[in-house]
Amino acid sequence: MGEPMPSAQRTVDAGGRVLTPGLVNTHHHMYQNLTRAYAPAINGTLFQWLTTLYPKWSVLDDESVYLSTYVACAELLSGGCTTSSDHMYVHPRPNLIDAQISAVSDVGFRFMANRGSMTRSVEDGGLPPKEVVQDEDTILADSERLIGAYHDPNPGAMTRVALAPCSMFSVSESIMRSTAELAEKHDVRLHTHLAEDTDEDAYALEVYGRRPVEYFEDCGWATPRTWVAHYVYGSDEENRRLAAAGVGATQCPSSNMIICGDAADAKSLRGMGMDVGIGCDGSASADSADLWMETRTALLLARHRHGPDAFTAREALNMATEGSAANLGWSDEIGHLRPGACADLVIWESSWLSQTGVLTDPVEGWLRSGPARAHWVFVQGKERLSQGELLLERLNDVVTAHRAAAAHMQGVS
Questions:
Q1: How many Cβ atoms are within 10 Å of 407's Cβ, its own excluded?
Q2: Is residue 168 part of a domain?
Q3: Is-contact 85 250, C-beta < 8 A?
Q4: Which of 91, 94, 173, 102 is nearest to 132 (CA)?
Q5: Is the pTM of the predicted complex or chain greater than 0.90?
Q6: Cβ–Cβ contacts within 10 Å for residue 258, how many?
Q7: CB neighbours of 72 closer than 8 A, spacing ≥ 6?
Q8: What is the pLDDT of residues 106-151, one digit of tens each?
Q9: Residue 265: which CATH number?
Q10: Is residue 19 a part of any domain in this protein?
Q11: Which of 125-129, 279-283, 373-377 has the lowest mean pLDDT?
């Protein structure tokens, strides 16, 4: 306090708008925007949805992954997101994550690539077809390659790598254990789906003789380097064990409401000391990548579950910023606007009519009285969206090519 303001290369007049840290998306499947609202899958359970779409995703290649990642980053920027992880677990061809990193570099977006994996095809008692699974040696070798090529542990990093076997019903116990050991060796994060659906309980008991959280713990994953997606159906005792172990969780509000019918109890998990972030999840389930919308839905879910005085807009914003940054092990640099943070920030624009009458609390007004879109977005101090317009020269060409790739994947003309 009392120190002079530092000199600035540029001054932006926010015009009285709300300014926040850039929002952080901690769970996504970017390639899935190639199958948004795919009619044969939209009304199924999680397992039905997956088995319908896995064959479609088997045609993924470098170009379609690049295009879908580029579109996802552009969409996220429009919704005030400046950092995202992505759980890329379908690998019908090699080097697809390289294509992702090429896309995020072209957009100028902060990114944590999750080297996902599947080893158990339908022939081995899993859900995916054999075309999209890999053997364990291939997975571990590529994981080490990606860490060496792209993981930047230094302050201000734009790209980092995490290791992310998909789920217990698509990978072997041995790859779960080997991946945890590899993450420890290279000091990188771990990520997987956990306790997302009631069918998962029955599957885990039948195949592994343990509930999902017990299996997760037995595989060596209950460590502070781990964050899990969804985490809807853990028991109170299991929740407390994972919180005590330092495991973080991502709530995916829209996706879980569409697919599972429930979502993680963010308020209770936070009350146990667990870091809880927000994820939009794959575009084929939530069909949107808007972190403002997910943050608002997190607010509504918590109040719906716990009462009108249970959760505030600031608490939801904290989930989408500091909570999400903690999930990614990045809380020293992103998710806040303290000195030393990366210059990732958003100036918001809400409909002027929706804000008419908001006089006592601009943050509550921003989240309750939407919708809101990003007006300016800066990533690492560089302008990526200006007065509502994305500064991406290739965007129109990419969208045109994306439509062609999506049509090919969905089998429509």
A1: 12
A2: yes
A3: no
A4: 91
A5: yes
A6: 17
A7: 28, 30, 33, 84, 86, 283, 289
A8: 999 999 999 999 999 988 888 888 999 999 999 999 999 999 999 9
A9: 3.20.20.140
A10: no
A11: 125-129
